[in-house]
Amino acid sequence: MFRTSLLLLAFAALGSAPSGAQKQGYEFTSSATQNPLVELYTSEGCSSCPPADRWLSGLASSRGLWTDFVPVAFHVDYWDYIGWEDRFASPDYSARQRELAADGGARTVYTPGVFVDGAAWPGWRRAGAVRGEGRRTGRLNVRVDGLHVGVRFDAADETISRPVLHVALLGMGLESAVKAGENRGRKLQHDFVVLGLTSVPLSGDGGSFAGAATLPAPREAADRYALAAWISARGRAAPIQAVGGFLPAI
User: Fold this and answer.
1) 63-96 burial: b if 16+ Cβ within 10 Å, else e
2) Residue 23 burial by Cβ neighbours in a 10 Å radius (0-12, 13-18, 19+)
């Protein structure tokens, strides 16, 4: 009960930024070319995942953060059975990884697994940065006022219909002292962790779409928060356009 109350208080603080910021809101806008969404699928119960976690955390110091790529870490639950229950994991995130794998023709899912714009990307071990293909997909604008997230997407392809907006609340500076499983005795550090995810359909036609969502509540409190938002076609997991940025410090 005490832990839950602390989380609610932290989220209440996030939703009530300083008065000047509250009036102005926070706005994130992509370019018209595709801004890659970098998805790491990881687990605290996986002994081979810490190097990938460190790699993703290292992207926080990249000059291309948010403008050239948007990183997110989805913690999966399919390793919980081997002794350590990952507090950031969700079966929904495991399901998303399976959807991406199925769309890309992969036979299985694994951790650590990295996807860039919906396609498996094993090159993360050799690359310090992420490069998109430069495809024109459209401009995505996201405005955050308290817990309200307003969105406009002007698609480059006017044949797109009924797109879906996904909004993720990300946690930075997270730590876990693992007491069981493959990482027993290790202190793991995480950034860009998806602490909440919501998806809503957008309305519009002719390539112009708009909609709104509520910023998802965090499952765990973090030192700092960020937002990642992306558009996908209905029934598909692969992103079309993404944008993100840090939310005000609490």
Assistant:
1) eebbebbbbbbbbbbbbbeeebebebbbeebbeb
2) exposed
Contact predicate 141/28, CB 8 Å: yes
Give 72's strand partners. Answer: 39
Q: Which two tokens stand for residue 190?
A: 């995480």
Which residue matches tokens 């709104």? Answer: 212
Six-digit token string for 234: 């209905």
For residue 150, the one-letter residue type is G
CB 218 within 8 A of CB 181: no
- pLDDT for the residue numbered 174: 98
Q: Looking at residue 159, what is its pLDDT?
A: 78
d(CA 143, CA 18): 16
- Kindly tell me the burial class for residue 44, based on how many C-beta atoms sit within 10 Å of its own C-beta (0-12, 13-18, 19 or more): buried
> Mean pLDDT throughout 114-131?
82
Residue 72 contacts residue 194 (beta carbons within 8 Å) = yes
Q: Would you state the pLDDT for residue 106?
A: 77
Asked whether the whole model's pTM tops 0.70, one would answer: yes
Longest CA–CA separation in the chain, Å? 55
Q: Enter the tokens of residue 214.
A: 């509520």
Q: How far apart are CA 61 and CA 179, in angstroms?
A: 30
Note the Cα 103 to chain centre separation in Å.
19
pLDDT digits (tens, 9 = 90+) for 197-228: 999 999 998 899 999 999 999 999 999 999 99
Task: Count Cβ atoms within 10 A of the Cβ of residue 100 and give its class: 0-12 exposed, 13-18 middle, 19 or more buried.
Answer: buried
Span 43-72, pLDDT tens digits: 999 999 999 999 999 999 998 999 999 999
pLDDT for 10 equals 47
